[in-house]
Amino acid sequence: IPVAPFVLTVFGATGDLARRKLLPALFHRDFAGQLPPEATIIGVARGAMTREEFVSLARAAIVEHVPASETAGPELDRFLTRLNYVTADAEGDDGWADLAAAISPCADRIQVYYLATAPHLFGPICERLGNFGLARNDSRVVIEKPIGKDLASAIRLNAAIGKVFPEERVYRIDHYLGKETVQNLMALRFANALFEPLWNAAHIDHVQITVAESLGVEERAGYYDTAGAMRDMVQNHLLQLLCLVAMEPPPSLDADAVRDEKLKVLRALKPIDERNAASLTVRGQYRAGASAGGAVSGYLDELGSNLSQTETFVALKAEVANWRWAGVPFYLRIGKRLATRVSEIVVGFRPVPHSAFSEQVGQIRPNRLVIRLQPDEGVKLWLMIKDPGPGGIRLSHVPLDMSFAEAFKVRNPDAYERLILDVVRGNQTLFMRRDEVEAAWRWVDPILEAWRNLNEQPRPYTAGTWGPSASIALIERDGRTWQEDG
Ligand code: BG6
């Protein structure tokens, strides 16, 4: 079913995000018949460029990122007719009258402004959208992380946007929330009666969340070095995943119902600061090593500097200090240039209280629910099962195994396809509210400060491994191990 007619203005339309994600996502949705004939996309950037030049840039980006089976037919040309281009200066007034003129024929449509630019331009762009009369009382604005680099800067940024757009029209993207498997967390927890009665400290021993990447920072080293893994991934994606695992069942999927519950989790996180950061956190930085494609450089070589202490890996032990989760460790781990690319949530249940089986028939291992977010998306529930055979009982640990690819023979849409259309639909459920972003910084800031004050150097790890050995010690000290095999 097509969404309502809209005009989407993308600032930073020639940049990396627009080319890799936004244009391909919009094309995919158009190909699937979800864009109405009146959907218009206006690219805005600082560089002088004709509409034809922008269209050929968009064509190249789509051909590069979308399978040839979709780009070979007439659909791509039809999609490109929706595009327009305006040159405008985000920090000056040049070009804004042209933008207003380009938007004005679409006055009857839903208006969306997507700020795919560097964050320091969010404030100036919103201000000009206001000054030039482009922010109507129903237009929406979309921004993406990094939303600040600490609590103070996030508050300033949110305030600058809030001067022009009220909160119910601000869409803060965390693209992890748009991933099919992340949305499935809510289905798994709240559309099944099986898990919820066990979903608490009485039955769950611990939770592990791993987001491992095999790639390094490569050409993003400039940005990455100002952020590091904590700001780049933990403050947003990992904490959002933790919230979806730990939150109370919301009364509905209404945006504020879900976001209220996530906020409570963020506020319940036990503080980590100078007193306990050394024992609860590990930061690492990769050195040269090997990945599947062969030898790879270390972080400092990619950056071209020997001085950086930026972390490319973080492992930490968090706790949600509330009635449901008291005492249950949430081990989080994220890093670049790790052994493989895998994002996974492992819920480790407590062992059975008593075994009726003798040790000879095999050890009873605790149940484990493994939610594989990517790749090979799926859900596995590890159970103890009797080995078939006439010779008496022998026990095995075997998964009930659901693979998305096998169960649903459809393409998994990219997160941006879902999220952009949700903006047009006016559905904020999968977007972060201002207070959530700020609560996440409120927890992260003292950790960053502790690292600074303790002069915690990142521990070196070899590219292609599972990170510094200290991260293994972090969990093994508690008598547990990271699960790397599903
Ligand atoms: C981005 C981070 O938000 O997420 C990147 O800035 C990271 O550093 C990326 O590589 C990972 O996203 P995905 O969807 O590939 O898991």
Structure description:
There is one protein chain. By secondary structure, this protein is of the alpha/beta class. Helices cover about 35% and strands about 20% of the residues. The protein has 16 helices and 18 strands. It has helices at about 15-30, 50-65, 70, 75-80, 95-105, 120-130, 150-160, 180-190, 220-245, 255-270, 275-280, 300-305, 405, 415-425, 435-455, 470-475; strands at about 5-10, 40-45, 85, 110-115, 140-145, 170-175, 205-210, 280-285, 290, 295, 315-320, 330-335, 340-350, 370-375, 380-385, 395-405, 430, 460. The strands form three sheets. The chain has a nine-stranded mixed β-sheet, with helices on both faces. The protein has a seven-stranded mixed β-sheet with strand order 3-2-1-4-5-6-17, with helices on both faces. A two-stranded antiparallel ribbon has the order 9-10. α10 (about 255-270) packs parallel to α15 (about 435-455). The longest helix is centred in the middle third of the chain and has 26 residues, at about 220-245. It is globular. The protein starts with 5 loop residues before the first strand and ends in a 10-residue tail after the last helix. It binds 6-O-phosphono-beta-D-glucopyranose (BG6). 6-O-phosphono-beta-D-glucopyranose (BG6) binds near residues 213, 232 and 233.
